[in-house]
Write the structure tokens for this entry.
Amino acid sequence: MAQFQRTVACGLVTESLVQQEITVVGWVHRRRDHGSLIFVDLRDRSGMLQIVLSPAFNKNAHAKAEHIRSEYVLSVTGKVVYRAAGTVNTDMPTGRLELQASDITILNYAKTLPFPLDEADHVDEELRLQYRYLDLRRPEMLERLRVRHELILSIRNQLHHEGFYEIETPLLTKNTAEGAREFLVPSRQHKGSFYALPQSPQLYKQLLMAGGVEKYFQVARCFRDEDLRADRQPEFTQLDLEMSFINEEDIQGVIERLVQYVVQTVFKRDVALPLPRMKYDDAFTMYGSDKPDLRFGMKIHRATSLFAATELQFLRKVLTQGGEIGMTHLAGQSLSRAALDGWVDRAKTVGAQGMIWVRLYPHGASESPIAKYLPNDFFEQVKSIIPEINEGDILFIIAGSYRDAWTQLGRLRLQVAEAYGLIPQDVLNWLWITDFPLLEYNTEKKRWVSAHHPFTSPQAGWETQEPAQMKARSYDLVLNGIELGGGSIRIHEAATQRKVFDLLGLNEDDMKGHFGFLLEAQELGFPPHGGIALGVDRFVMLLAGCASIREVIAFPKPQSGFDPLMQAPTSVAPQKLAEYGLVYKPVSLK
């Protein structure tokens, strides 16, 4: 076995080492053969260093270098010298220096890689993930992992400073009646019974408050058996936090100080406190979303009054059915009629059955497929609703139920802004969304379900309100239009918890079977408490400027959920299943 002793990392070689002998190790990033001179860029986690080999330095080392190839693993000993004038590489921290090699040891060989590392961004993602260990060698990937490490370390440091205890909670837990689909784990010792992998440590962290811990946090692994998107994975990491004897402002203050510390420490950027707040109803009314991106304008406005007397039958039908008409406007764009008609088709991709565009001009000259149905003072009427409107601005109008039309306009708003470069990329726009609905009506289940989770405390006065009017003591943290995390003040009294369970359609047997332990704890001196969970993967993704959380996770799953590296999931032999009292039998759920 080859012997070596690294004395310094490649990227940490500095001018203080000039004329000294050092040993570096790493991978061959690039090799250039100029006959008597061979140059090798050697790469390790810290960066790159140019190695120069010549028979004048060492004939044996030069001979070995004639046979090395990309991604060979080397140990190189030599003397640090300045590069010759005119050969300095200002793009590398070590670009003024090189190592004159006196000895090379090949620690391992590498056959031709499945894809060139410098072309990985243009390689099919499945292939990248199949050879993720190669993909991770790229400096930009290692940098993202470094940033992730620094972010988590800074979280721990700040929460330690705030007096929190870091405590691990079980990964093998109980499946629950509410929430997303879970991963189930069969029990060998208790055949016919199953553990569930936690969607979050929610119940355990609440029970820690019952145990007097008062301030808990955990960098927790969580699991959800859901369809994947750019910002979702079946297993993910979240910062989980819970506190006793607090209110909403206390938790938000802890998170604001945490965000400020992390962003300043890791990303060298400022975060002005306090972070702005917006109520859920206002966010949805103005932006059609509970996580609005406020880096650009294009608010949504009610246009119902503009069409109260319209002769357009499809709009009259919407209004007679109690629907609404909403609009957003685009300024400063000279779009062709074909381009505007294209947005009608794009609107269908966000769920709209149709969309109307109007290019605004005063004195009845507006351009639109419905121009003949618009009054001569339409421009002036719009200006009374949107004072900043100007001649040539474009309206996008969608009609339907308030919930549907505003949701569709919110999605269309984002697509339009992205298409015309209206979203500044160097801005961090933080926002608290508060006063969420306590419940949502599920049309498939035909019953009310928790908008957050069933342990969320209702706001005062909820007992006399209809379910649709009830508000929760909950709050979400939004960054650049993406939900970074959410939390709430929890229910700590058994009587209130039972009433909420009853609203959700749980009978006494359901309550005892699923949550009996919680109800009992609430009768044994449970303190007022609340908490929050932030997505660590999303946090790193947003601050590192990546488009997907897969770019900041060491070994993610692609959208199919199948791991091409480990070839998982796999089938299990019948005799192995039998140890758990199981037999696999395909069943159709149709």
User: Anything to note?
Assistant: The mean pLDDT is 95. The longest strand covers residues 21-34. Residues 296-419 form a domain with the Gyrase A; domain 2 fold (CATH 3.30.1360.30). The chain has three domains: 10-108, 142-278+430-574, 296-419.
